[in-house]
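Colleagues,

For the teaching module next term, I've prepared a clean inverse folding example: a structure given as tokens, and then the sequence designed for it. I'd like students to try predicting residues themselves before seeing the answer, so please don't circulate the second half yet.
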């Protein structure tokens, strides 16, 4: 392990970090890690916000907070502005910066939560605000383990699509906390001056699970579930690649498209329309749970894959 660093595990990767990442699972292995996170030269962080390419590196700047230089899918250097919030620095490090690293490594990160149902992973994807974490909290409170929150990384192993374990927490808005009977005072804010909180999940697991189904969440007045197939299923997956806007700079867009094709062949993809609002939330979540169990136990709804470049 790298001297002066702590070993963590995330998305199936061993990470040696000079920056404390207490929200991650600790790991203990003598081998060299897959990823190094190092402290760069601290000082004023100026320049245009956003991402730019610099040779083999991608540089992500958040003015007055931090600059993240991501290289080769194996190293992230963090330059921190004086007085910057450590919490906010970690938020962008484990979010956008790590998203760049995943793309550089050729992995397929979906903007999705994943829960364990009957020994398999079920993913719920959708843009921010589509209710992924609130739904995952309902599954967690119903006795299901959470495999990933917000980012679900997919690998292909022996022709099987596998969902990697992600961050061992849920990130919930204040109203979603209240809906689940939680008190915001009991949790740490996810970001300074924001009504959003990190909720640790129980029974942390670092292994991967075979992916059994993907649901794309969306606003539908009438609600309902619809099986997607062919190009429509592939498009739904491509549209929900985490930080997909980085692909042009990170490269690998064709590879990600091929992996989305392989994933659509590997597991059934559904559109899950929701009427929205907490008044029907329990009913809709229960229907999704029952539907997922049926999918996982019905051979005609399961398909296999022979490819995937991950």
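(Answer key — instructors only)
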């Amino acid at each position: 392990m790298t001297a002066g660093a702590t070993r963590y595990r995330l998305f199936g990767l061993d990470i040696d970090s000079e920056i404390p990442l207490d929200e991650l699972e600790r790991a203990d292995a003598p081998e060299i890690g897959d990823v190094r996170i190092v402290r760069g030269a601290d000082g004023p962080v100026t320049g245009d916000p956003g991402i730019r390419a610099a040779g083999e590196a991608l540089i992500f700047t958040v003015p007055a907070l931090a600059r993240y230089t991501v290289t080769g899918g194996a190293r992230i250097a963090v330059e921190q502005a004086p007085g910057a919030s450590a919490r906010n620095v970690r938020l962008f490090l484990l979010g956008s910066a790590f998203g760049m690293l995943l793309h550089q490594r050729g992995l397929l990160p979906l903007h999705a939560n994943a829960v364990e149902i009957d020994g398999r992973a079920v993913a719920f994807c959708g843009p921010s605000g589509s209710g992924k974490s609130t739904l995952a909290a309902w599954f967690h409170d119903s006795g299901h383990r959470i495999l990933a929150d917000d980012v679900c990384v997919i690998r292909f192993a022996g022709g099987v699509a596998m969902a990697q374990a992600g961050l061992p927490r849920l990130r919930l808005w204040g109203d979603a906390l209240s809906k689940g009977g939680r008190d915001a005072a009991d949790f740490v804010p996810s970001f300074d001056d924001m009504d959003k909180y990190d909720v640790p999940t129980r029974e942390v697991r670092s292994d991967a699970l075979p992916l059994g189904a993907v649901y794309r969440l969306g606003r539908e007045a009438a609600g309902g579930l619809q099986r997607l197939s062919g190009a429509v299923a592939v498009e739904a997956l491509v549209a929900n690649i985490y930080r997909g806007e980085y692909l042009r700079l990170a490269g690998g867009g064709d590879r990600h498209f091929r992996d989305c094709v392989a994933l659509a062949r590997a597991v059934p993809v559904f559109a899950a329309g929701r009427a929205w609002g907490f008044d029907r939330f329990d009913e809709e979540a229960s229907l999704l749970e029952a539907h997922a169990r049926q999918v996982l136990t019905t051979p005609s709804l399961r398909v296999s894959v022979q490819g995937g470049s991950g």
